[in-house]
Amino acid sequence: MEQTMRSRFNARDLLPELGEISAALSKVTGNGSVPPITIGLIGLRACQITGNTYTLVRQARELRKLGESEDRIDALASWWDAPYFTDAERVALALTEAVLRPTTAGEEKVPDDLYARAAEHYDEKALITLTVAIGQAMFFMPVALIGRPLPGMPPAETWT
Description:
Layout: H1 11-14, H2 17-29, H3 36-50, H4 53-65, H5 70-75, H6 87-100, H7 112-121, H8 124-139, H9 141-147
C-alpha cells in the first residue's frame, strides 16, 4: 500500500521571514569570490552528510541548472577519490566534511593544515564565503528534516 507523504508544517507560510534570511545568505555566498558551482557542491555534500531527500533533490537540481555534469553530481559522495574535482573544490569539500562530521573529544574540527590548504586556493573573502556557504546549507537543514517538505515538487507544492 502506497502512503501519501505530507509535510509536517508549512515553514514558508508560518515564518515568511525565512525568505529574507535565504535571500541575504544567497547574496553573501553569491558575492563572486567563490564559483557558484563550488557553493552548490558544498550544499549538496552537506545534504548527503545529513541525509535529507528534499534538500538532496533540490541541490542536485540547482547544480544541473548551473550546468553541472551528472558524473560530478553522482561522484560527489566519494569526492576524495573521484577524478572530477579540482584541488580548490576538494579543499572546499574537505572543509565541509570537517565542519559536519562528528569528532571525538579534544579533536580539532578544522586543523591548521586543512585551513592552510584552503588558504592556498582561496583568499580571505573567499574563505569566509565558504564558511557562510556551509552555514547556509546547514541553516535550513533542521527545517527540512523536521518539517519534511515534499521532494521534487514545485516550490509552491513542497509544503502541503
